[in-house]
Task: structure prediction
Amino acid sequence: MWIGDRKVKIRAWLYEHQSITGGVVPILFLDTDVDGNAPEDREITDVLYGGDERYRLKQEIVLGIGGVRMLEALDFKIAKYHMNEGHSSLLTLELLRKNNINADEVKDLCIFTTHTPVEAAFDKFPYDLVNELLGERFPIDVLKEYGGRDRLNMTLLALNLSKYTNGVTKTHMEYSRKLFPGHLIMSVTNGVHSYTWTCQYFRELFDKYIPGWANEPELLVRVGPIPDKEIWEAHLKAKRDLLEFIKKRTGVELDINTLTLGFARRATAYKRATLIFSDLERLRELNRRGRLQLVFAGKAHPRDTGGKLMIKEIHNYMAQLKDEVKIVYLENYNMEMAARLTSGVDVWLNTPLPPLEASGTSGMKAAHNGVINFSVLDGWWIEGCVEGVTGWAIGPPPDEPLEEHERRRRELRDLYNKLEYLIIPTFYERRDRWINMMSNSIGKVAYYFNSHRMMRRYVTEAYLL
Result:
């Protein structure tokens, strides 16, 4: 295929993912590091989200246009193309070319899911660069009709050429409709793969009491008959594994009987990982009321200076509280570590700045392991939170009109007050109530916020259109 004034070869690597039920899903990875390509072109697929505008547009040409051509070359028969975020939306141009610029035929083939409520995150490219790299093979007037008059907006391109579009939570849907008035944007709330994110000990427990749960996670609603003692024992085993992992990684020995809060996700400013340190004296008082341990993890994007500074701030707070509150920050965050954390802590803390959390999924993973969520009302938690039943909310809902300083004040009030008057006393003094909430996390959260339910909705509401 042509990119600019050079022909670029693309090859595909095949990875076959085998499910626990024996099914196989082929995954193709596109690669331009091929003999015969110019050195500059061999580097197009080297770095994810790397380089400048030019590099990014080349990558999106390979993914979108090259992806369609690769599937065709491998004789895949595609009924629907599902674009997740705008990075692949140039596939619509290839489909327009193949269908004689018939937009209705292209729309019948395409589904688009937007994953961010931040307009600045939408890829936009100047038309002189687009014209340089795509040339006359794709008429510029067509690009401007569907992708925006001033710059090629990849999100707008996908929206205009898809029959079904959606956000990833109900709140995100509403916010996206404001960003793109006139577009019918629906919602399919995200979910996580239940078996993958349920730890060994809860898998064994569910296998014993809820046979078939792995293939039909909705059955987790039947968690009620599982004895409290066995839920607590499964949790302690997962917690012990986490604490041993932490000791091996950091040399810090945490106490299995101490209330442990976990916070692990991409390190970026709007996630506000340092919110709990807003009032150090209050945090010290809480620790005297009932011992606390904090476990952090997460990487910042190499170019995210704010995210890097946030990690540095957490380490500074760790030093200030060194002899009072045990805090660890785990390096080299990955999926394995995420699974240990979401199953091994007692409370999953989440403090994003509304409305910037389109969905979030880490709390769903925690719920599969009976870990209780304590989160700002944003993203999926607006749908998952039943106050005092499935977990606790921090601050007001994002649609409540408040000045920013008042929202912040109420968030901090909830964060510290609920820890002091609800979470700490329940954990230490009302273990039966605590385990009941763990059970609710499984039976009222995990049973619904899973990828089986999510995919069923995509199939019935989008793919079969």
Summary: Residues 2-191+458-463 form a domain with the Rossmann fold fold (CATH 3.40.50.2000).
